[in-house]
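fyi for ur records
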Amino acid sequence: SMSLALIIGFIGWGGWIACGSIVHARFFSSLSETAVLLVGISIPVQMVRNYLNSVQQGLQTFTEANIVLLVEDVATLLFVLPLIWGVESGPTVIVFAAVGGSVVSCIASVWYLVRHGYTPRPRLHRELSLEMMRFGLKGHIGRIANMLNWRLDVMILSMLAPVEIVGYYAVATKVAETFRPLSAAFTFVLRPMIASLSVSEARAQGVSLYRRVFALNLLLVVIMAFAGGPIIIRMFGPDFVAAVPAFQILLVGLAALGGAGVLNGYNVGIGRPEFNSYTALAGLVITVIGDVTLIPHYSLIGAAVTSSVAYSVKAAALTLLFLSTSGISLPQLLGMKEYSPDPA
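which gave:
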């Protein structure tokens, strides 16, 4: 419910205020302490926006849901422009930029929902709120683990290797992950769509989409395998040729993750977000152990190998969970054998 979003949001803002002195001293020392505290208003605003955006996804109005997310970025940019142009300076513009984009996107989300006949208003439903928290926590653990899977390698590398090596690896990861948002896009759409289908229909849709998305991702990875090296050298200069081997290694793991977006969306849609958390945690264990073991000896190549293995382990775990819980065989999933869903 919206009330739950407000409660959690204001708790978050309270935590921000409680840690205000530390946050100000360590991260925003150029701003006044009051400005830093005001930036925290974006926490409850974003919580409400995320709730409203989730309702839009549930209604499967994906174009409008994406427009709301785009509006936030555009509005934030517009608020920052006076600072870039030198028309305005000081903490006021920064606070407006941090909070204003979220407020505008929140208003846009409300407007779209009202157009569809829904009037968002705070109401606290105890049973529904408890169910939402249980469901959300199961998946949130996985989101944190995924975030660490994608970026912990750079953090560990920055502690164990010279800064130029970190720069090479950062370029390698960014270029290799060019098409990674495609996976997140499928997850975004599939969660509510799978939830609206019967069990047999959801499985059939999962199998069909897995094949197509995996094949599309594999094609893009092959293209990047040939084009990525020249792109890196052309864009960043010949000194960054050292990033190319790491880039090529990362592509192996990203190829394995081709159908992960479909399976992530499927798991949430059938009400089992914890499956995504299990697989993300498996990948995180590989990331930590591999990076600590390999980076001191093999530098950015060790980081790339570790990440590629972690991605592959996560992909294999997601696939095995899907096969074991759906009753679908690997040949059926890969299209080597016909899959005929049971009647609903």
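The chain has a mean pLDDT of 88. thats all i got for now
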